[in-house]
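When time allows, look over one protein, given below as sequence and tokens. The question is which stretches look regular and which look disordered:
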Amino acid sequence: MIISTVGRSSLSRLEKQIILYHLNNGGILAFSTDTLYGIGVKAVLSQAVDQLYKVKNREKGKPLILLGSTVAQFQPYISEPKLLQHPLINAYWPGPLTVVLPFEKSSQLFFGQDDPDSIGMRVPDDKILLDLFTFLDFPLLTTSANPSGSSPFREGHSIQSWLLSLSIQELIVLDGGEMEALPSTVIQLFGNDRYKMIREGIISTEELAPFFQVKKKGD
């Protein structure tokens, strides 16, 4: 099932109800974002997360990312919630910044790895997703829409063909049209003055530096 979101700022209530039912039953959702196309599942469903790793052909040791609409949605999944108040997060969310924070191991999140210490999260600057995530009231565990080692797909129909070729029948694609963008910047945040650059994307190291007394961890 493909739902076109081109030129739209929100989904209908019926569309959101269909997506909610789909995710609650372990289905995969594909979607455009403010960076790349992604695929995701409800993060507390172990079978859905296993399937996401399988279709991506991704090693279980490689983490996935939580996408949500508010800081509050992420608080149950990290052990140091105060880090979510960092000025950098306030400045760049919603936006193309993924922040890796300490994982709360007592949470109900199924995260692929047996004993993860940290987890990445982001609030994307995309009106459709923000509208949907507010309705869902839970974050999605996500990854880019492509097999591991391949370039991300640039439009929804290619994603649908790829997943159907893997016999994924329970699928909804939010097609925002053809897009080509840089990935989000990924940092690991250790405190008010320490961070580690994991991947430099849309946001550069120079743009991050003013938010820290020390430029990066180890300096």
Notes: The radius of gyration is 17 Å. The chain has a mean pLDDT of 89. The first strand starts at residue 2 and ends at 4. The helical segments are 13-24, 46-56, 71-74, 87-92, 127-136, 156-165, 205-208.
